[in-house]
Amino acid sequence: MPGPDNPPLHIVVPVRDEPDNVERFYRQVLAEIRLPRRLIVVYDRDERATLPPLRAIAASDPTVHLVENAWGRGGRGAVRTGFAQVGEGPVLVAMADLSDDLSLVPEMYRRYLAGNDVVCPSRWAPGGRQLGGPAVKRLLSRTAGVSLHRLRGVPTRDVTNNFRLYDKALLDRLDLDEKGGFALAMEITVRAFVSGARIAELPTTWRSRTAGRSKFRMWRWLPAYLKWYLWALSHRRRGTRPAAARGRPEDGVPGRAAVR
Ligand SMILES: Nc1nc2c(ncn2[C@@H]2O[C@H](COP(=O)(O)OP(=O)(O)OP(=O)(O)O)[C@@H](O)[C@H]2O)c(=O)[nH]1
Ligand SMILES: [Mg+2]
């Protein structure tokens, strides 16, 4: 049963044209995320192909909620629509294309309970890797993440990965941009860092999708990535916020859990 020691995990999943992935994704959630959870799947107004398999899943599982994108369409609006469905607690963003390693989620949740506001699986941390995907996108992501880590001390080397766990209270403090596609994760992470939020990194393996088509628009969203990169370079972190008391801290002292 969910309680103060194990708040429900809200999993926000944007979907667009993923008929061949959603069932496998759902089975991975069942197998890997054995936590109190709510799955919030956000589809665009003009979505067609993915809705029949999604409706079948939602009909059999009351913890699965299908929500229409409040912005009509677009990945950023879909994720923000999912955020708006959550009152408080941990919010995971995961992609339906099976690229993210969901076996990491229980450890991400543990790091959240230990007081972190953002928990970042990282392809570019020691032990992390990316299998497949366009070389230029990989190079830009890695260069941006590793350089911000070295130059500014951003705790994750993978600022562009949208597979993340956030504290909803942190998201509520940020007035997020309306545009910029999936640069959303980078925007949240660098703004969280500058505001003093606690950020943890875990190595992960990212695998390129095997079904469906990528909707990533690198050249269209590059200005947004550049904007947040330059913003991070030109802003200094304002101290570190005290660790929030969540769940049962490992050292038994509320609010002073060992944050790693
Ligand atoms: N609702 C909604 N979901 C989207 C949209 N674009 C992408 N998605 C979903 O967001 C997730 C990630 O989309 P991808 O196209 O794989 O983009 P990516 O993961 O950032 O990049 P690559 O996997 O490297 O191509 C998937 O679950 C998509 O179905 C969109 O415009 N609207
Ligand atoms: Mg993808």
Descriptive overview:
35% of the residues lie in helices and 17% in strands. The protein has eight helices and nine strands. A seven-stranded mixed sheet has the order 3-2-1-4-7-5-8, sandwiched between helices. It starts with 8 loop residues before the first strand and ends in a 27-residue tail after the last helix.
Write the topology of this structure.
Elements: E1 9-15, H1 22-32, E2 37-43, H2 51-60, E3 64-68, H3 75-84, E4 90-93, H4 105-113, E5 118-122, E6 129-131, H5 135-152, E7 164-167, H6 168-173, H7 184-194, E8 199-203, E9 205-207, H8 218-233
Parallel strand pairs: 1-2, 1-4, 2-3, 5-8, 6-9
Antiparallel strand pairs: 4-7, 5-7
Helix pairs in contact: 5-8, 7-8
Largest sheet: 7 strands, mixed
Strand content: 15-25%
- Average pLDDT figure: 93
Number of domains: 1
The strand count comes to 9
Q: How much helix is in the residues?
A: 25-40%
